[in-house]
Each structure stands twice: as C-alpha cells, then as structure tokens.
Amino acid sequence: MSPRVTIVTVAREAGVSTSTVSQVMRGSGRISLKTREKVLEAAKRINYQRDHHAAALRSKQFREIGLLINQISNPFNAAVVAGVSNLLETQGYLVFVLDTRDEEDRQRRYIDTLMGGARGGLLWVPTMDTSDDVIEQVQARNLPTVTFLRRLPKGQFDHVGIENEAGTFEATEYLIKLGHRHIAFLGGEEAVDVRMQRVSGFANAMSRHGLDPTMVYPCQETKTEAANKLPRLLTQHPTITAIICSGDMVAMGATLWLSRMGKIVGKDVSVIGFDGTEEAALWTPPLSTLTVNAFYLGEQLAQTLLDRIANPDMPLKSIRLSAQLDIRKTTGPVRE
Fold first, then answer.
1. Residues ≥6 apart with Cβ < 8 Å to 37
2. For the segment 233-267, what is each residue's pLDDT rounded down to a tens digit?
3. Would 313 be classed as within a structural domain?
C-alpha cells in the first residue's frame, strides 16, 4: 500500500514549511503568489487530496447535512430532497439522504451514525413511534435540527409542514358542492399526525353539512395497497360516490382499481389526491389533487436549517405551506 500523502509530504516536495502548505490549502495567510503556485503544483504532482473532514473538525465548520426521510421512492419526497439539495449545495454543504422506511430501529441506527460524525445539521421526518430517548439524544448533541412533515410531540426543534387540515376541508367542501353526500377518506397510517390532520379537515367539513364523517380507512401510501383496500371499503359502503385520499399514490391506486372494475372515474366515483406530484398531472385520467410545491418545501426546509446554523439562539420557527386544490378529470358532479 502506498504511504498516505499529507501536508508534510507536500511541504517536503515543495521545499516549504508545513504551516505554509496549510495556509495555502486554507486560502489564508500572506503567502506570495510564487510560493502559492509552487505548493499547488507540488500537491497536484503527488496527488494530494485535502482531508475536508479533518479540516471541519479543526475549524468547527461542518459541511455535511443528514436528511432522514420516509419512503424516498415516493415522488413527493424525492422532490423535497431535490429542493433541499439544490439550496444547500449552493452554500457549500453536502446532503446525505437516508430512508428510514418508517422503522424506528432503522431510524435509531441512522441517528447513532449521524450523531457520531461531524455533521452540520439534521433534517428529519421522525418515524411514527420515535422514542423519547432518540429525541433526547438529538437534543443533547445540540445539533441544528429541523423536523418536517411530522412534528414531534416532544423536542424543541424548528419545523416545516403543510396546512393539512385546511387542504382536506377545502377538498371535501368542493365535493359536497358537487352534490356528493357519501364521501370516504382513504389512506395513511392511523397514528400519524399528518393523517390525523387530514382526516380532521375531512370530518369537520362533513359534520358541518350534517353528513357522515366516519367512513375513514387507513392504508399504506402505495398504489398496490390502495387497490387492495378499496374493494372492502366499497363493499361495506356501496353508496360512496367520492373518495379523498391521503396522498397521490393512494389516489392513483384507487383510480386503477375503479377503472379495472368498469367504473368511470370522475363520473361514477370522484377521487381527489394530496401532494400534487408531477405524475398526478400525467395520470389517466389526470388526477384532481391538493398540490403542495414539494421542491419549494425542500428549499424552505434547507433555508430554515441555514438560519438556525447562522443564528443558533433565534426563536423557534414553524412554517406551514398551503395546499392548492387543482381540479382535473377525476372529479365531477354526483351521478343521479
């Protein structure tokens, strides 16, 4: 194995002191242009690579951000990651994305790894069953942290979320105005606060008009799971004429099954999603949905973390983005 090339090796090759090499690599000190060029040429000649991790430890300026998310395969989450990376990379940060798959044990392992390294901050979608000791571990490290999508009941962190309740309230009101009276909510895991907020908006709108708000079914956020759950829902409640879904993936799975059963989506049964993924607009038929700009949400998330890094003592921030109801072809007046 070849010996490791260090600044000592560079200094020897260039015929200067190690402190001179160190200043050249940091871009500091009063080093002449001639000497600076000589050091850089020597470093290139012997293939010297600066150890950025060690440099961060010395300067206390850590440039790596950990991002813990659930289901990176979901197009909405992928767009959030793109927004985060787009902004943070312009500020010289590297983003490490880890998918917890909503498993607490996996999250614990990832947190242990991130806490053990030199990280500049943490962006975090907590799992449903995040334990108090994991929250305390992050707090004890005093690492700049922003939670998003799911807010922790404990833990003093900045947060970026969505106006979930207002969104589903608006969507339910829209369907009621179209004449629908038997409306169901499909999707999401029961204990998740995001789902609870969306169900609350649905239930409040139904109750406001004296309609039954109890047709609520949990479902994993996948097309396959939605297609598997929908037959039971419609068997138990055959009068349903409209469905509000917790996410676009669930809505797409629902429309696939309805079409397969010979139903005309948007006429026999109306369907509304939530997220506003690019795929929703290209779906057949194009999906009505509550649209949140996921890329912009990612940028807001990154900016909130940058603000916390720059001003560690500032008051806690809580940002909520609104969801816009985009009407396409999967909704229409109730069919008599």
1. none
2. 999 999 999 999 999 999 999 999 999 999 999 99
3. yes
